[in-house]
Amino acid sequence: MSISKTVLVVDDDQDIRELLDEYLTKAGFTVSTAAEGEEMKRRLAMGYPDLILLDVMMPGDDGFTLCQYIRKTSDVPIIMLTAVSDEMDQIIGLELGADDYIAKPFSPRQLMARIKALLRRVKPTEAQQIPAAPKSIYFANWRLDTASQRLYDVDKGKDYELTGSDFALLMLFLTRPNEVLDRDTISFATRGREATPSARSIDVQLSRLRQRLGDKGTQQRLIKTIRGNGYAFNAEVTYEQ
């Protein structure tokens, strides 16, 4: 593992912070720590790490809230740490953008294996390779403002703010309309890594975007599922500079 990799440990338990700091430093990582949300935000203001270990149960903002905060601006890999081995916690964490989940107590070797596996999958996102976006993009009854990342329902006169990952997914579809995109392509564009066979995050994200667009159930007219191949965005798209 390259010594240039940086990890931010966010946990209110001082013993765990010190243990992980020592272990990861010996493994060649550059480690910083935070005991709660405000300290985490101050760390992130100085630059994002290569990976974040984020505890779920903390005073003040919990890990789920902080995961949402991170995902508004970054696709940095996140591993959630929790003392509760509960499937619902795992689902909530994935829905909010976490990449992996490990229950306490865990062995440092197990955590290291998770970290290495996740970092191996991280690659530059396709979204970073897309040319400068137009100011507005129109499709169906919607207008997307690319600067503010707000989605406007032209017919109803309502607007909605998109999360960073949802905006990246919609931009991928809008820049490649009527093209079949497989799960790996979607995962690279929105999360910077390949889709793992068991990952539910793509399904959750697609479902969330479909719901926002009113494109759910049997009325899926915009995001079409191409069985065995992927998904295609079925709409006429126009751009305004």
Automatic annotation (TrEMBL):
Pfam family of the protein (one): Response_reg
4-aspartylphosphate PTM sites in chain numbering: D55
Domain of life assignment: Bacteria
Domain Response regulatory, first and last residues per copy: 6-119
Keyword list, A-Z: DNA-binding, Phosphoprotein, Transcription, Transcription regulation, Two-component regulatory system
Gene Ontology terms describing biological process: regulation of DNA-templated transcription
Annotated GO MF terms: phosphorelay response regulator activity; transcription cis-regulatory region binding
Ranges for domain OmpR/PhoB-type: 134-235
Gene3D superfamilies given in the database record: 3.40.50.2300, 6.10.250.690, Winged helix-like DNA-binding domain superfamily/Winged helix DNA-binding domain
DNA-binding region: 134-235
GO cellular component term of the entry, any: protein-DNA complex
Name of the molecule in the record: Chemotaxis protein CheY
